[in-house]
Amino acid sequence: MMRKIQISVLIMILGFFAISIMQAYATSQSNVSIIATGTVSMAPLVSINLDTTKFVGTNNLSLGCMIDWQWYSWQNSAYRRQLVQDAGFKLVRVFDFRKTNPALMPCTYWDESTKTGEWDWTHVDALTQRIFEVGAEPLYCLSYARPSIQNYIPPGMTVNPETELPYPESYAAYCSEWVKHFKNVGLPVRFYEVFNEPFAYFGWTADYTKLGYFKDVWNACARAMRNVNPNIMLSFDFTTNRRVLDYWIQNGEDIDFLDAHKYDCNSMPGYDDQEMFKRAEERRFFSYPDNNFYGFDDARQLWFNSRGKILPSIISESNVNSACGDQGTDPRMAQMAGAVRTALVLRQGMLENIDYHVYYEFSSDPATATSGYGFGMINSATNKPWYSYFAQKLIGSNLGLNNLILETSSSSNDVRVIAWKNGLTLNILVICKVDESRVLRFNGVTGEVNYSWIDNSIPFTDASIQNSVINIEENLQVMGYIVMLLQKYS
Questions:
Q1: CATH of 32-57+405-489, one of 3.40.50.20, 2.60.40.1180, 3.20.20.60, 3.90.1150.10
Q2: Per-residue pLDDT tens digits for 92-127
Q3: Beta bridge pairs of residue 441
Q4: What does the alpha-carbon distance between residue 314 and residue 311 come to, in Å, rounded to a whole number?
């Protein structure tokens, strides 16, 4: 009896070593371990399937970023401007109300009686020109709708004590001056938002009385601005909220794009990584019965049914976590988990026909953040990008409008994939959502490919993109969170 047990154990041991040797052989054939560990793990095998003859859609997505508190240093830094250009960012969102020095609010004084102002466009024009020079367009967001709105409108402008907002005719005159100025100086600025995060004024569930006051001001601005230039693109960032969109369809002037902010955690401490990744792929993209928001596709359909127009869609702010103030910011924004989250959002944006995704924000200084690293993707103290920047660069610098999206699939929910053709280049984006080793097997594409990736093998404080060449017909082992782009030239 003892001898039979010993033989059985020996057979099990030999079987284990045989499997290990086979996996080691498969992995060693192309030296494909992304992080060299010296050993080969028994990692699960994930099959990634591509059909290069079938297309599931075309890409509408372009990437963008917010130039907020540190807009002046960005404007005056050739290196930082180059980072925006290198990543392929096409939209740069800017506030007019940050009282940084020098301030971006061009109206130095407003005369309420005449509805006219004194203006200095020096800094606005310089920033606008720099944005166009890097191949992007500006999106100017005018004012911040909150009860303390006096801090966010030009000095001298009067607030209606009943509504706690500026008087419609007065604020419309202010907004239309922006459009008139750019028209006069020949700067082709198209995108505007009137009021940032108006839910701070009328509430997350949209109090209808205050929503009506807001509508009166916004409608007046829309009419005045379009009277100067009917080709502008105008909206505000709460238009996929159910109560707001339903109300707006009945009472509002046309919006030119659906506009929403997307933060996958709202307070600190945030959700764990896996819940964050789930929200990255679902939050704001889809409608749920217990949610205050329509998904973009449902919102588009509702607007089309009532107004006869399919609207573009812009995620005008996006990051891991919206927490700030005493709670600080989520440090994952700078780390690989944040990069995975951002890559998942961009992948889903391609699939859901989003037109722009704007990352909030370009840069931040860890030394001045309450905790974490701020909201930036660049360490402004060192000018070093974090992983959130490189995830976007991998995608944005290789993605074009109307690129054909190929049919792809993954055998595991742990690994997401999307592929597209940009000119003669086949691009395959792979995102590993688990911080564990996986072995990838690619089906449907052959030969030698270039691949570029970011992962935890380099500390995020010194983040960089790594590059190599492999034979894609041989298995590829990844060692945890990874955003990877494989490219094959036809």
A1: 2.60.40.1180
A2: 999 999 877 788 999 999 999 999 999 999 999 999
A3: 47
A4: 10
Amino acid at 79: Y
| Helices (H), ranges, 229-320 | 242-251, 273-282, 296-307
Number of H helices, E strands in the chain: 12, 24
CATH class of 59-403: alpha beta
DSSP annotation of 154 reads -
| Cis peptide bond upstream of 361, omega within 30 | yes
Tell me the pLDDT band of 325, cut-offs 50, 70 and 90.
low
Instruction: Map residue 249 onto helix, strand or coil.
Output: helix
Give the list of residues 6+ apart from residue 207 with CB closer than 8 angstroms, or none.
none
138, 188 contact by CB (below 8 A): no
Strand bridging mode 62-66 / 89-95: parallel
Annotated domain spans of the chain: 32-57+405-489, 59-403
List, as one string, the DSSP characters of 70-114: THHHHHT-HHHHHHHHHTTEEEEEEES----SS-S--EEEEETTT
| Furthest CA-CA distance within the chain | 104
Task: Write down the residue that tokens 């001298």 correspond to.
Answer: 156
The residue whose two tokens read 């997505």 is 61
E strands in 251-373: 258-265, 313-321, 356-359, 363-364
CB neighbour list of residue 475: distance below 8 Å, 6 or more residues apart: 26, 27, 29, 30, 32, 45, 439, 440, 441
